[in-house]
Automatic annotation (TrEMBL), chain A:
Chain's role: Required for the first step of histidine biosynthesis. May allow the feedback regulation of ATP phosphoribosyltransferase activity by histidine.
Source organism (scientific name): Pararhizobium mangrovi
InterPro entries in the cross-refs: aa-tRNA-synth_II (IPR006195), aa-tRNA-synth_II/BPL/LPL (IPR045864), HisRS-like_core (IPR041715), HisRS/HisZ (IPR004516), HisZ (IPR004517)
NCBIfam families, sorted: PRK12295.1-4
Protein name: ATP phosphoribosyltransferase regulatory subunit
Cell location: Cytoplasm
Protein encoded by which gene: hisZ
UniProt pathway: Amino-acid biosynthesis; L-histidine biosynthesis; L-histidine from 5-phospho-alpha-D-ribose 1-diphosphate: step 1/9
Domain Aminoacyl-transfer RNA synthetases class-II family profile: 17-363
Quaternary structure annotation from Swiss-Prot or TrEMBL: Homodimer. Heteromultimer composed of HisG and HisZ subunits.
UniProtKB/TrEMBL annotation, chain B:
Catalytic activity: 1-(5-phospho-beta-D-ribosyl)-ATP + diphosphate = 5-phospho-alpha-D-ribose 1-diphosphate + ATP
Signal sequence bounds: none
Molecular function, one GO term: ATP phosphoribosyltransferase activity
Record-stated family: Belongs to the ATP phosphoribosyltransferase family. Short subfamily.
InterPro entries attached to this UniProt entry: ATP_PRibTrfase_cat, ATP_PRibTrfase_CS, ATP_PRibTrfase_HisG
Ranges of residues in domain ATP phosphoribosyltransferase catalytic: 54-228
Keywords tagged on the record: Amino-acid biosynthesis, Glycosyltransferase, Histidine biosynthesis, Transferase
Function of the molecule: Catalyzes the condensation of ATP and 5-phosphoribose 1-diphosphate to form N'-(5'-phosphoribosyl)-ATP (PR-ATP). Has a crucial role in the pathway because the rate of histidine biosynthesis seems to be controlled primarily by regulation of HisG enzymatic activity.
Gene Ontology cellular component annotations, sorted alphabetically: cytoplasm
NCBIfam families (UniProt xref): hisG
Domain of life: Bacteria
Origin organism lineage: Bacteria, Pseudomonadati, Pseudomonadota, Alphaproteobacteria, Hyphomicrobiales
Designated name of the protein: ATP phosphoribosyltransferase
Enzyme class of the recorded protein, top EC level: transferase
Amino acid sequence: MPLIDQPPFADELQAALAARGGEAVSVPMIQPAEPFLDTAGEDLRRRIFMTESETGASLCLRPEFTIPVCRRHIEAAAGTPRRYAYGGPVFRQRREGPREFFQAGIEDLGDPERAKADARVIGDAVAVLETLLGDGLSTTIGDQAVFEAVVAALGLPRGWQKRLVHAFGNPVALAAMLESLADPQPADDLADARAAELVASGEEAALARHVGARMEETGYSPHAGRTPEAIAHRLMEKTELARTRLEPSALAVLQEFLSFDVPLAGAPSELARFAERTGLAIGEALKDFSARVAALGHAPIAAMHYRAAFGRPLDYYTGLVFEVTDEDGAVLAGGGRYDRLMTMLGAAEPIPAVGFALWLDRIERARAKR
Amino acid sequence: MNVTVALPSKGRMKEEALAIFERAGFPIAQSGSERSYRGRVEGREDIEIAFLSASEIARELGRGGVDFGITGEDLIREGLADSETRVAIEARLGFGRADVVVAVPDIWLDVTTMADLGDVAADFRARTGRRLAVATKYWRLTQQFLSATHGIQLYRIVESLGATEGAPAAGQADIIVDITSTGSTLKANHLRVLSDGVVLRSEACLVRARCDGHAEDARVKEIAEAVRGAVAR
C-alpha cells in the first residue's frame, strides 16, 4: 500500500472497516467501461474518464467501487454471504473542482436476511463515521419498496405503476408524471386502421398476429428487439393508460405519502396509521420496513429520519437507500440495496446486495472543522 | 491582422456559400486553380478565405483558428462542447436544411412520442436482456436530447458513421438519431420520426468564433451585416 496519496486518517479508517467484518478487497483502477454504462446508462459517459485499449475495447478510470467489487465477486465465483471492504481513489469528470476523490466502503453480498443486512450496513456507515468524526451526524432513510407498495395499492394500471417507480428519486420527473396522471392526454390516433380496430375491440392476440404479419412484410426481425406480442401488449396498455385518471383523492393520498419526513423510530407506526386511514394494503412492505427499524436496535436511531420521497433513479436499486450528512448538509456516506445489480452484471443467480460508500475528502473537510 | 473566413471546400454547400458572399458584396476568387484551398476577396486584401471540409470548419471555429465559417448547425452543436460560449450564429442562410431526428421502426405502433420511448427503454432490459440500442453519429446531441431533455437514461449508443438508417434492419441497433432532409430514406427503411422527436432543425449558418478583439473590429461587424443583408434579399 502506498504511504502517501491517502487521506491522513486512512489507517484509522481501515481498522474501523476491518472491525465491522469487512474482508479487504482491491480492484484495478482501470476498468472496462461497459458494465458502468450498461447499468447506469449512457449519460454516465460524460462523467467518467474513458479511453480505449489498443484493441479497441472501451476502458475507464473507475468512477466508483460497487460495480468493480461485485464483478470481482462474480468472476472469483466466491460463495456467499460475503462482506467486502474497499478503499482508494475514484475519478469523475467535472467542469470545476477536483476530479479525483477517495472512497471507501463495504459491500455486503448474499445475506438472505435483508432487514438484518440493511440494518448492519447502516450501522456500519454510522459507526465508522462516528469513529472518525464523533457525533452530530444525521441519517436519512428512504425505501423504494414502500413507495412501490403504495403505488400498487392505489390500484393504478401496471403501466402507470412502472412509470412512477421508474421516476422515483427524480422529483422533477415524478411531479411531471403526477401532473399527467391528474390530467391525462388522449393517445395519438393510430395510422394503421386495422390495428386501431383491434385495439378498440380489445383483441390483443389478433393484434399481435397483425403486428407479426407486418413485421414480416417489412423485414423487421422479431428476434432483433421487440416481439409482436410486446408491441401489441404495450399498445393495449397505452390505450388504457391514456384513459386512466388518478382521482383527486388518490392523488392527494400519494402526495401526502411523498411528503412524509419523520423520525425513523416513529416511522413504522406513522406508516401503519397512514395505511389504516387511507385503506391502502401495504402490509408486506410495511412489515419489512418495521423489521429493518427493529433490527437497527442499538444504532443511534435518534438521529435518523425517514423521508418517503428519497430514492435513487437507477433501476438496480430495489429497497433501502440512505445517506449520512454532517451539520452543514454535506453527504459523507451514501448507500442502499441493489438486489437487481448482481444478475445485471452476469451472476447466474440473484444475489441480495447492500452496501455503502464513504466520501473521504468530505470527511477530511468535516474533520478539519472540528 | 486579416479576418479569416472558412468556406466549405466542395459540393452544393460550397456553391451556395460562394453565391451568398458574392451577393453580400464579397466576390471570391479562388487562388490558382479550382482545386486550391485558399481564396481571396477581390479588392479586399484584409479578408482571407480558407476552403475546408464542413466538420473541419466547426472544429476551427471552436478553437478560434478562423474568425468566420459557413457550416451546418448540426456540426456546431455536435462538434463543440458549450458551443454557445465559443461561437455565435450570425446568420441562418436558408440552404443545407435538414433535421436531426429520433426515428423508430414503423412497426413499433405503440411508440409515437418520446414519453413512449422512455417507457420502452425502461423495460427493455427486462424483456430482452440488453439495453435499448441507439445508432447515431450524433453522440452529444443524442445524450442531450434523450437524457437531459427527456430524462431517458437507459439506452446505449452504437456509433454509426454511415448508412445509419439501415442499422435497425441490420440488427445493429433498435432506433436511430440521424439527419434527414426529406424523410424518404427513413421511409424506405421502415422508420418513423416520433411526433416530438426533432432534436435540431439544422441549416447552413454563418458562424463567428467568439474571439477577443472582435468587438472593436469594424470588419467583423461589416461581414456579419453584409451576409445577413444578402440572406434577407
